[in-house]
Specification:
- Chain B: InterPro entries: TPR-like_helical_dom_sf.
- Chain B: Keywords: Signal.
- Chain B: Residues 1-20 form the signal peptide.
- Chain A: It holds the Pfam family Plug.
- The structure holds two protein chains of two kinds.
- By secondary structure, chain A is mostly beta strands.
- Chain A has two domains: 16-95, Immunoglobulin-like (Sandwich); 111-715, TonB-dependent receptor, beta-barrel domain (Maltoporin, Chain A).
- In chain A, 5% of the residues lie in helices and 58% in strands.
- Chain A has five helices and 42 strands.
- Chain A is globular, with a radius of gyration of 31 Å.
- Mean pLDDT of chain A is 90; it is low at 8-16.
- Chain B is mainly α.
- Chain B has ten helices and no strands.
- Mean pLDDT of chain B is 86; it is low at 10-19.
- The chains are: A mainly beta, B mainly alpha.
- The A-B interface holds A 1, 3-4, 35-36, 38, 40, 42-45, 47-49, 52, 69, 73-74, 102-103, 116, 118, 124-126, 229-230, 509-511, 557, 562, 564, 602, 604-605, 607, 648, 650-651, 707, 709-710, 713-714 and B 2-3, 6, 24, 28, 43, 46-47, 50-51, 53-55, 57-58, 83-85, 88-89, 92-93, 126, 128-130, 132-133, 135-137, 139-140, 166, 169-172.
């Protein structure tokens, strides 16, 4: 009974005490008042939100020692001990900004991201397939971005005065060997991989992370989709072939299998070609992609891609009448990879995987019968530790095993090499606050074949202005072993080197993005040789050079309704001594002025999207042997206007029509010259041209699923 | 004997505090629900979200407080005039509340519908570039909610809205969408008959169905 009385007394005592009034003002570290802050006594309902002037005031029935909590998105939660006695208390509090990945500064120097995340993004994944000049090729869309040059007789990615081998391509962090199809000289190629495999990409034109190496100029990192949304079958019928893909999705896993066949024969028999095809390009590919969720946050992916293709083409020789010589190419290619990601305990996370590429080319050239085989095995493991929201470190180890064999079947000759490379890298990010970030990294490598050890430092810093813009700076050194066809001649060849300095300004607000970048890239220890590129002799690493310039990018999807456009200009001032050149020259693949405009407009009543892309440069340099010097001439300006029309009559049906070089301009990429002079004592020249004045593409894409809304807009 | 009655009473009291019938919890929820009903501006909704957040902190055994905090934030996002960045921040925070509730209490049709609603907000903040890839994700969330509870009126009416948007985009008739809106109206009436004004369980969304039905006429 006594206890009961005490109990009652206690209750009435607490009721008896007056409520305590708690008030104050909340400001941020710059002294600005913070509205909307949640202020309350822990474990009670007593609390309020701050007013526009940062002030708060509420009362509580609680007594004694309590904890006052102040929290607001983007700020560190603050806890204060207070004693509630009935006497009013006043607390003026300053909240510190928390490092918030959503709004914090990002490093934009050299980097261009295509993703759905609302960060420093210049492209959306969909842009890759809806850019008319791209014709559904991942790299085709990237060629409308700053820092790149279109080299129409090659088709690969050329970045800031670097040749195509200076760009490394990765899928889910793992290296892809021979990412482009094998082709004949001056016949453009494309990437082997379907753009709908990828949910986004990270394209760097310099100064990139220590995670990536063996690329002097550029890294293209493609990230595959996780688990697709639904079961579906995709049928595609195109003017150049057809294909089918089936996707099965389970609770925790998915499987996609696809097969495609293409043959340009029917198309090329209808549309007149400049090239003299004996057998038009044809081939098939098949792939399987599987995903399995691993626990709550992990994922394992596996992907296998096989393809086979061929072509036979007559290539005329300058100064010689007739069809010239017949080049026959057969290519077989396999790419397999498996990767995982998992979040561990104590703020660790892990990624890694294995990849294997096997490329086999059988080339018949005149009387020669050449077989070349490239193999690449890549294993990688990366661990990331977040020590705090402001400081994280990424570390990883990698090994590359590469093999190359070249044989002249008719002569029964062959040569090969095998190399094992071991790499380790470490990189830390430190956010001083949401405005300022520092990144520093080191990458080391060792090649067994030439017994060389190297270390490349990388560093970048980025500062975000309060008015939305941000400025970034990046520095780094980059090492790359020469191409296999040279290493097989001389196994001792070590790394070629580049040093990048990049200054970037990036501004993105309300559907408008502006990006400006200045760069300086120094080349050292470039490969040089005597004689012809097919039969190089006296290979040395004594070349060097410089590429410098600036580029601009502006994108706007706000100003004009239903219209999205971007404009790019790149200035690349490049000179280098490399390859078979005796002097320092402007490479033929590095035009000085490069520009492009891409416009997309959606017309709702017609259920259609029309696209236009225009790209141009001021011409390609080449050597005219009839006048003294090297790279002493320049072609006329390159210009291409491409148009596309996508029509969606039903949600699951798309009809896509695209045409490149609508104006039929006769673009010239350089000249080939005869090796002997003619009767007039001149070397006869022959322009290197496009395969046809235009390329016309028509495709019908039908998606079958229980949900009739699904379509293949991603596959165009 | 009196002693035992007292112990028993205290015991009961102890049970009550950890139960959804805790009068203090119900009272606090009712107060915030009233504020939610009255909220007009982004600031109002942010305040209400803060209020529900306080309850969620104290009553972590309840999913409804996080649910309503998320709902208030989605509403704040739709009302926001400050551009895509602020809108996204509201939707992001709303999704955090939903994820927190799902993690602690498992998925249910209401939480999935709210998640879909937040995603719908993100989509409508930039339909030009988000429409294509996000519409299937949003519809997926409502679809999953409906498979867990085919009678959920909110999941039904929001699915109807998405269907209407798709039909308009592809120039198709609104029959399917309007049929679903009608169905959702019946479900709302059924729900209203089963529950009372005083209940703190989700009862909102009827105005959406009414608005859609007017549009369909």
């Amino acid at each position: 009974m006594k206890t009961f009385i005490t109990f009652v007394l206690m209750i009435s005592a607490s009721v008896g005490i007056a409520q305590t009034e708690i008030k104050g003002i909340v400001k941020d570290s710059k002294g600005e008042p913070l509205p909307g802050v949640n202020v309350f006594i822990q474990n009670t309902y007593d609390g309020t939100s701050t007013k526009p002037d940062g002030s708060f005031s509420f009362s509580s029935d609680e007594t004694g020692d309590q904890i006052l909590i102040l929290q607001s998105v983007g700020f560190k939660k603050q806890e204060l001990s207070v004693q509630l006695t009935g006497e009013p208390i006043e607390n003026n509090v300053t909240l510190k900004e928390s490092i918030d990945q959503l709004n914090a500064v990002t490093i934009t120097a050299g980097a261009m991201e295509a993703s759905d995340e609302n960060k420093a993004v210049v492209l959306k994944p969909l842009d890759i397939v809806t850019t008319p000049s791209a014709m559904g090729d991942v790299v085709g869309a990237l060629q409308t971005l700053p820092g790149t040059s279109t080299v129409g007789n090659d088709g690969r990615l050329f970045v800031r005065g670097g040749d195509a081998s200076e760009t490394a391509i990765f899928i889910d962090g793992l290296k892809v060997g021979n990412a482009f199809g094998t082709t004949a000289n001056n016949v453009p190629t494309r990437t082997r991989f379907n753009p709908n495999l990828f949910k986004g990409s990270f394209f760097s034109t310099g100064g990139y992370s220590a995670e990536y190496g063996q690329a002097l100029s550029s890294a293209l990192v493609l990230n595959t989709v996780d688990i697709p949304v639904r079961n579906q079958g995709d049928i595609s019928l195109m003017s150049v072939g057809g294909g089918y893909a089936q996707t099965l999705v389970g609770e925790k896993n998915s499987l996609t299998a696809s097969a495609n066949y293409f043959d340009l024969t029917p198309y090329q028999s209808l549309v007149k070609q400049n090239f003299d095809w004996e057998r038009s390009p044809h081939g098939w590919d098949a792939s399987i992609s599987a995903r399995q969720k691993w626990g709550n946050s992990g994922m394992v992916k596996a992907y296998l891609h096989k393809e086979s293709s061929g072509m036979e083409i007559w290539q005329a020789e300058p100064g010689v009448d007739g069809k010239g010589s017949l080049v026959k190419i057969k290519n077989d290619y396999t790419y397999a990879q498996s990767s995982f990601k998992q979040i561990g305990k104590n703020d660790w996370s892990y990624t890694g995987g294995l990849s294997y590429s096997l490329n086999k080319d059988q080339i018949k050239l005149g009387g020669l019968d050449i077989v070349q085989q490239t193999e690449l095995f890549h294993a990688k493991g990366v661990a990331v530790k977040d020590f705090s929201p402001a400081f994280s470190t990424k570390m990883g180890v990698e090994t590359y095993w590469s093999g190359y064999e070249q044989s002249l079947v008719s002569e029964d000759l062959s040569r090969n090499f095998m190399d094992q490379q071991y790499n380790a890298f470490i990189e830390s990010d430190y956010y001083v606050n949401n405005q300022l970030i520092f990144r520093g990294g080191l990458r080391s490598g060792y090649s067994k074949l030439n017994d060389e050890l190297w270390i490349d430092p990388r560093a970048s810093v980025s500062y975000k202005f309060r008015s939305d813009g941000q400025i970034s700076f990046a520095y780094g050194t980059f090492s790359q072993l020469p191409e296999e066809r040279f290493r097989v001649v001389d196994n001792e060849l070590g790394n070629t080197k580049a040093t990048h300095w990049i200054l970037n300004y990036f501004h993105s607000k309300n559907g408008r993005t502006f990006r400006a970048e200045a760069f300086y890239k120094g080349y050292d220890q470039l490969l040089t040789f005597e004689g012809d590129v097919q039969f190089p002799e006296q290979l040395r690493l004594d070349g060097n050079g410089v590429a410098k310039g600036m580029d601009f990018f502006f994108r706007d999807n706000k100003t004009f309704k239903n219209t999205d456009f971007w404009i790019t200009y790149s200035l690349v001032d490049s000179e280098r001594k490399f390859g078979g050149y005796q002097t320092s020259v402007q490479p033929g693949f590095a035009p000085l002025h490069n520009g492009s405009v891409v416009v997309k407009h959606f017309i709702s009543p017609l259920k259609s999207q029309i696209g236009m892309s225009f790209s141009m440069n001021d011409g390609y340099t080449y050597t005219n042997p009839n006048i003294p010097g090297e790279q002493n001439s320049k072609t006329k300006s390159y210009q291409d206007l491409s148009l596309s029309w996508s029509y969606l009559p039903k949600p699951n049906l798309i009809i896509h029509l695209a045409c490149s070089n609508v104006l039929g301009r006769n673009n010239v990429f350089g000249y080939q010259y005869a090796s002997e002079t003619n009767d007039n004592n001149l070397f006869t020249g022959m322009p290197i041209q496009q395969g046809a004045p235009r390329f016309l593409f028509l495709g019908v894409f039908l998606t079958l699923s229980s949900d009739k809304k699904a379509n293949q807009l991603n596959n165009l | 004997m009196k002693k035992y009655t007292l112990i028993f009473a205290l015991f009961l009291f102890g049970i009550c505090t950890s139960n959804a019938n805790d009068p203090a919890y119900i009272k606090a929820m009712a107060k915030q629900l009233e504020a939610l009903e009255k909220a007009q501006t982004t600031t109002d909704f942010q305040e209400v979200a803060n209020g529900f957040n306080r309850i969620a902190e104290k009553n972590s055994e309840e999913w409804l407080a996080d649910y309503y905090a998320g709902l208030a934030l989605v509403n704040a996002g739709f009302r926001s005039q400050e551009g895509i960045k602020e809108k996204d921040a509201f939707y992001h925070e709303a999704k955090n509340h939903v994820e927190k509730a799902i993690k602690a209490h498992g998925e249910n049709a209401e939480l999935l519908t709210l998640k879909g609603y937040a995603l719908m907000g993100e989509l409508s903040a930039d339909p030009g570039s988000r429409g294509q890839h996000m519409s299937s994700v949003v519809m997926g969330a409502f679809g999953k909610a409906l498979s867990m509870d085919p009678e959920n009126p909110r999941a039904m009416v929001m699915m109807a809205q998405m269907e209407l948007g798709m039909a308009q985009f592809f120039g198709q008739g609104p029959e399917k969408a309007c049929g679903m809106a009608q169905k959702s109206m019946q479900l709302f009436e059924k729900e209203a008959a089963k529950t009372s004004e005083k209940d703190i369980s989700p009862r909102w969304g009827k105005d959406m169905a009414e608005q859609m039905i007017t549009q369909c006429k």
